[in-house]
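Page 42, continued from yesterday. The earlier attempt failed because a stray header line got pasted into the input along with the sequence. Redoing it now with the clean sequence only.
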Amino acid sequence: MRILHVETGRHLYGGALQVRYLLEGLSARGVANVLVCPSGAAIAGASAVFCEAVHEVPMGGDLDLGFVGRLQRVIRETRPDLVHLHSRRGADVLGGIAARRVGVPVVLSRRVDNPEPAPWARLKYRLFDRVITISEAIRHVLLAEGVSPERVVCVPSAVDMNAWQGTCDREGFQAACGLAPGERAVGVIAQLITRKGHRHLLTAAPAILAAHPEVRLLLFGQGPLEAQLRARIEDMGLTGQVRLMGFRDDLERILPCLDLVVHPADMEGLGVSLLQAAAAGVPLVGTRAGGVPEIIGDDEAGVLVPPGDAPALARAVIDLLGDPSALRRLGEAGRRRVAARFSVEAMVAGNLAVYQELVHG
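This time it went through. Structure tokens are written below.
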């Protein structure tokens, strides 16, 4: 079986990292992979060994109509049994049109839970033989918009447990993050975009820091809200206590040293950073948004609060930081939960089952 994968992300995290895991797992199972990605994308070099061919092509976003022709040429050249579109922006509708015009079955992965107008959703998703959602929450969004249940399958995202089993190098962590001995760290790992809810944590920050003055709030990630968040932190007089840490490619060293990971999102398809934190044994505070409860469970891996409720967020963080035994218990339970429910093996098997159904019937 030959599968052509389309991934538009330029950096190797989030959805692109999931594709990297999938390519490796499929290759080990004898599937021939062809990857289409933007020129210079990190996934090209990271996944080449698991691919029969890698095609780096120009991708200009949703309005780049020329992408249809460019993808059609690659499909005709490589003759895959199926096309799997892994990205929304610039690849879903245009990629679906390209595959349909060539007459190849096409699958779309959907990783976000933001709703779409129901008439558009019903029309759009007819392009795809299957839509694979990374959480049940996303699947329910599509079903509520009138997409046929037979067309939508949930295959949760995965985390490589082996990558997150390291122990904390306290001195190295303190040096990397500018922490003094005795200071504790609460992390947020998310793009600096509105839907991730950083503003709610900033609203909660004075109460958290008053109760636990030894805590430092570390915001890992990059995005268009960086200047806005930095200005608000300065206006609140919290520059030394709340820090923008930028994008880090060494989270496997950072996560084991965090006391707590907070995810204050308003909307979230699933939350790969939460999977990584739980795999590292870090307890979580998250919102009841999208797929976040599927990771945390019924207070198994952490505590859930309503989206946008800064006082509830503050109480949850304050209470957990004051209860070391709860932190240990939740961290251990979260590691077990992720290993059981979100393994790479299960994710690869789930995607492969969809391919086999469409290709072999």
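Notes: The longest strand covers residues 32-37.
Reminder to self: strip header lines before submitting.
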